[in-house]
Input
Amino acid sequence: MKKYDNALKYEIFEKKEYKFLDDFIKNAKTIIDIWAHYGYFSLYALDINNNLNIYALEPIFYNKAIENLNKYPNVKLYKLWVSSEVGESYIYRNSEKTMQSSIYNDNFLNKSEDKIKCKFTTIKEFIKDNNIKTVDLMKIDIEWAEFEVLLSMEDKEFKNIKTLCLEYHILENSFQDKFNILVEKLRKNYINMEIIESEYTNKVGYILAY
Output
């Protein structure tokens, strides 16, 4: 676990996996971090712009996230997972590779049987409940649940999200179709869109829409 945690820190703080977002972070006032995990992306963003207001969602490793983020009064942490519906459901916690915890456990990245019951919300409800007028940057990394969440959103819901960055995972053939539909949906709602493929595989990467 210590080696894995150090690898995550290396990717974000040394390798600077999110460097392509630096200018967006510098000019942002409000960021929503979904899923926050240990809070490393939020810490990376605060290192660039310490005047940010960050809303971070983390239901599984909440205590670890609090430990890393509690000294920052401009970070609000919520014990929530984002889904296409409001309610309660289960997340399969991967205790070996924690960032691969997911609502799914039927592929090679996560076969965990360790279920944790969590509160689920939608992006629409979260923004409404917290009276957020404008989201300058929304980062989404929810381990191959991104298609379900974003394809369930109405076009008008993207209007107040200026920049959207999501990690995509094409783990089976049906996900390729969902990926194509999502790309078209984002092209319709944003002026600019970039697909940033992983250096290891084109099945994983980031979509940046702004």
Observations:
- Strands lie at 30-34, 53-57, 75-78, 81-82, 87-92, 115-121, 137-140, 164-169, 193-197, 204-209.
